[in-house]
Structure formats: C-alpha cells, structure tokens
C-alpha cells in the first residue's frame, strides 16, 4: 500500500503543479494586458508592471490550489481508469475508503501549501505590490477619496484600558507608503457625541505600542457643556488653543489596521482580518465583510479535501462512459462553479446578514455532500 501511495502521490503532485502553473500563466497574461494601461503613469514602467504581476501570483496560487488539486486528481484517476490500473488496484483489495484515505494524505500537502500562501506569502506580497505601484506612480490610496481617509476609535480613561470616555474620528489627507500620516485632523467627542477637541498636525509617525507622534500640532479644546441651554457664545468664550512641536497620541489605530487600505479582504491574513473585525465591532461599525473573509480564510485550505473527494468518483467511470478530456472538462466546470458559489455566498451573507461562520462553510459543505453522493452512486453501480 505504501508503494501505491507513493505512486499516486508522485503522479498527482506532478499533475496538480502542471495545472497550477498553466492557470497562473493564464492569469498573469490577463493581468499584463490590464496593467499595460497603467504603464507610463508617473514613473510606472514595464518592469514595474512585471514585478507587480509577479507579486500578485501568490494570491492567485492560494485561490487556485484547490481547483488545481481537483483537475489534477481527476486527470490522474481518469488515466488510471482508462488503462485499467485502477481496476487492478480495486481487485488487489483497495476499497473506496482506502482510496479516499490515500487521497486525503496526498491532499494534506496541498492544504498546507494553501495555508502558507494564504496566511503568510500572499498578504505580504499583495501589500508590497500595492505600495510599490502607488510609490512609483506618485499617488496614494487617499487620493481616491475627496475628503481623505477616515478612521474611528474609542477614547478610554487610561489610553488603551479603562472604561470608554468618548470617541475619536481621524481624518488623514494622505498616507505615505511608509505608513506616515499627512495632514492629520482628530475630532474628539464625549459619550454624548458633543465635540470636546480638535487636533491638527502636519504629519504623524507610528512609534510602536499604539503611540503616534504628531508633529507641528495645533490643539483646540472646547469647554464642557454644563446644560443644554448653553449658548454658542458661552462655548466660544471658553475655547483654548495651544500649539506644540510634538505630541504623542495613544490610539487603537495602528499601521496594521491602516494596511487594510492596501489590500483586499480576501488577500489579508486571518490574523489581520480578526484584528480589524474586532476593531470595527468595538467602534460599532459593520464588520460582516471581514468576519466572512476571516472564516473563509480558516476553512478554504480544507476545500482541497472536498475537491479531491469530488475527483474520486471519476476513477470508477470506465473509459467508455466518457473520455479523459470530458472528465477534465467536467472537473474544470466543477472548480469554476465552486469559486462562483463561494463568492456568491459571501455576497448573499452580507446582504442577508447570515452568520459569517455558516456563510463560509456552506459552499464546501454542499460540495462535500455532492462528493459523498457521487461515491454512493458509483458504489451502487
């Protein structure tokens, strides 16, 4: 059985790698056509476009490994069936459960690869690619918004701990690719959403430990309102303004949270998604999109097992039931439909406020039931 497992593993790994490389080449070609429109903007040249496309490949690899595992496994099993090798294996006491166990062991390698690409390689590569493009073109993310970028966090008694005493809105005119905030405005409010302070700074640099160092600071403090009958004139007379060369600001907003601006949620790591979703919840903002992306990031690598389970029934179809090319085409259609349904459920989950966990798991569960049904059908035959 070990010899058989090594034989199948060798054939399937080679086949899956071939399919994956073919898909990546196709996506790289489409991306190159798209990026040619940006060549010539600022200092963005053809070599930058090639590098940008190359840095995007880990993200595609993460998305395509389960589909490549499906198509590659179908190809190998169809070839074995056409040469009657799989029939000989069955005659040699290999049951369906044993075949599934062998495929599961092989699939574990692709699960680990998907996890590594999705959690470690793709997020860093995608973030670096976006920053590279913005830096070379001389643009920034914030230029897409007329009023700049906005973020919100909670004011607490002891910086990051203690009970909430208000809320704070940050408006940034520009965010450099190195994480520096340009032309920062901070609006502070009490628990009743009465404005208590306006802080303006020319720029801010992150010092670590949730501390931002603001430079060329102008701080305007508003007096507390004693009663609802207080007039605007009374408030104006109590205004206090001071200027400082530097000021430290403790905030829940960190460069990791700001990095969300440079990446699509589907290209972020599960750790960053969890942190940003928690930040949104604490600030009473909608976080469904990031929670769904988080659970998809957790369960998507295990879709490899589902795809390989779907491939197993093809080994029981004799050559006269359909050629190898037809089986491969069927595998491609199954893989494409899985991606479409996976993305469809993400949008439906946000629109209908479905539980993020269920939204992420249901597509894989549906296809797993289809795989079990396919195996049951071929076993009865």
UniProtKB/TrEMBL annotation:
In the bilayer, the protein is annotated as: Multi-pass membrane protein
Q: Which Pfam family, giving just one, matches this sequence?
A: LptF_LptG
Q: Which residues cross the membrane?
A: 12-30, 50-77, 97-118, 298-317, 324-345, 357-378
Q: Classify the main location.
A: membrane
Ordered alphabetically, the record's keywords are: Cell membrane, Membrane, Transmembrane, Transmembrane helix
The source's superkingdom equals: Bacteria
Q: What InterPro entries does the database record attribute to this sequence?
A: LptG, LptG/LptF_permease
This protein's record includes keyword Kinase: no
> Is the keyword Membrane in the record?
yes
Q: Where in the cell is it found?
A: Cell membrane
Q: What is this protein called?
A: LPS export ABC transporter permease LptG
- Taxonomic lineage of this organism? Bacteria, Pseudomonadati, Pseudomonadota, Betaproteobacteria, Burkholderiales
Gene behind the chain? lptG
């Amino acid at each position: 059985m070990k010899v058989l497992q090594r034989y199948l593993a060798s054939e399937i790994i080679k086949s899956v790698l071939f399919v994956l490389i073919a898909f990546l080449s196709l996506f790289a070609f489409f991306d190159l056509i798209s990026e040619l429109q940006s060549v010539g903007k600022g200092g963005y040249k053809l070599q930058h476009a090639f590098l940008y496309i190359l840095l995007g490949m880990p993200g595609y690899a993460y998305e395509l490994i389960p589909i490549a595992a499906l198509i590659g496994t179908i190809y190998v099993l169809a070839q074995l069936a056409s040469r009657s090798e799989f029939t000989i294996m069955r005659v040699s006491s290999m049951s369906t459960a044993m075949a599934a166990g062998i495929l599961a062991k092989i699939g574990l390698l692709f699960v680990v690869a998907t996890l590594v690409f999705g959690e470690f390689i793709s997020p860093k590569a995608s973030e670096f690619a976006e920053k590279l493009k913005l830096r070379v073109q001389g643009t920034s993310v914030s230029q897409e918004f007329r009023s700049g970028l906005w973020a919100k966090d909670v004011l607490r008694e002891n910086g990051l701990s203690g009970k909430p005493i208000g809320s704070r809105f940050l408006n940034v005119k520009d965010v450099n690719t190195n994480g520096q905030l340009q032309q920062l405005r901070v609006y502070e409010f009490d628990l009743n959403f009465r404005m208590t302070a306006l802080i303006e700074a020319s720029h801010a640099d992150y010092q670590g430990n949730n501390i931002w160092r603001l430079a060329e600071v102008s701080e305007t403090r508003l007096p507390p309102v004693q009663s609802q009958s207080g007039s605007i004139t009374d408030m104006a007379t109590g205004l206090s303004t001071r200027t400082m060369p530097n000021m430290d600001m403790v905030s829940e907003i960190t460069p990791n949270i700001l990095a969300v601006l440079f990446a699509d949620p589907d290209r972020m790591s599960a750790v960053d998604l969890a942190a940003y979703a928690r930040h949104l919840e604490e600030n009473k903002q909608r976080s469904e999109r990031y929670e769904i992306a988080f659970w998809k990031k957790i369960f998507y690598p295990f879709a490899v097992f589902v795809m390989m389970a779907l491939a197993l029934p093809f080994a029981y179809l004799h050559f006269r039931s359909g050629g190898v090319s037809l089986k491969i085409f069927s595998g491609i259609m199954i893989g494409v439909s899985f991606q479409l349904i996976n993305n469809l459920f993400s949008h439906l989950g946000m629109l209908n406020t479905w539980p993020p966990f269920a939204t992420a798991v249901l597509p894989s569960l549906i296809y797993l039931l289809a795989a079990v049904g396919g195996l049951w059908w071929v076993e009865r035959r």
